[in-house]
Structure formats: C-alpha cells, structure tokens
Amino acid sequence: MSADDPAMPVLTATVLQSPEPVALARFYGALTGWTVHEDGPTWLRVRPADGGPGLSVQYDDAYVPPVWPPESGRQGMQLHLDFQVEDLPAATARALELGATEHAFQPQDDVRVLLDPDGHPFCLFLPGA
C-alpha cells in the first residue's frame, strides 16, 4: 500500500455484477487488451499488464441492468466506465463487434455511450473530451 501512510487505501479494481461473469470478463478483456484471470465461474479479474487498477466481475443472479438516462422508479446507473481512445469511430465499431450496443442517447459528439453485454453503460471518448 502507500509507503507514506499504510492506512491509505489503494484502488485495485471496480467490480461489476453479472449474471454471466465469464462472458462479461472476456468482453472487457477483449475490449481493453487486458488479461482475464478466471478465479472461478463466479469471480474473475481483468487486469492491465502494468499492474494498475482493473476490473473484477462477480456473479449476481439478481442483477438488473440499469437505465440511462435515469427514469423514475427504475434501476439507475450507479457508475460507468470511461475509456479514452484515439479513433472514436474505429473504437466504437470494435466495441460493437465484441458485443456492445450503442445507446440511443448520445449527449456529446466526442463521446460514445455504449452498453456492455449485460447492459452496464460505458463511454469511449477522445482526448480532451
């Protein structure tokens, strides 16, 4: 942990719930080029080679996909992932080929809002966006 303060937490991963954790981890592994560590059918880690923070995917049979933009009375988004890209059209096409869907609502020209195979929103954006 932190050499200056051993009580200071260090973020290692954001955890996504999924009814299909193996498939979702493999989607994010393919999207990012990170390594998927299959610790079992209910818990997987997706990590960059440099050891920086990554993603984990945990089985949840009661998972309900969020809606975005928010709608009263429906499960809203609690977080989303942002990925910077150099070529937005190419990165969007690649994500779609891997199983993402493009959200109908796109609030900015230099950002693409997509949904992963389980419906978690994520964004691809250009530098400076």
In short:
The chain is of the alpha/beta class and 129 residues long. It has 2 helices and 8 strands.
Number of strands: 8
Indicate the overall shape: globular
The CATH homologous superfamily of the largest domain is called 2,3-Dihydroxybiphenyl 1,2-Dioxygenase, domain 1
> What is the string of helix and strand elements?
EHEEEEHEEE
CATH class of the largest domain: Alpha Beta
Output the CATH topology of the largest domain: 2,3-Dihydroxybiphenyl 1,2-Dioxygenase, domain 1
Number of domains: 2
What does this structure look like?
This protein is an alpha/beta fold. It has 2 domains: 13-62, Signal recognition particle alu RNA binding heterodimer, srp9/1 (2-Layer Sandwich); 64-129, 2,3-Dihydroxybiphenyl 1,2-Dioxygenase, domain 1 (Roll), CATH 3.10.180. 18% of the residues lie in helices and 30% in strands. It has 2 helices and 8 strands, in the order E-H-E-E-E-E-H-E-E-E. The protein has helices at residues 21-32, 88-98, and strands spanning 13-18, 35-40, 43-47, 54-59, 81-84, 101-102, 111-115, 121-125. Strands 1-4-3-2 form a 4-stranded mixed β-sheet, with helices on one face. A hairpin with a 2-residue loop joins strand 2 and strand 3 (43-47). It starts with 12 loop residues before the first strand and ends with a strand. Residues 14-125 form the Glyoxalase-like domain. It holds the Pfam family Glyoxalase_6. This is VOC family protein.
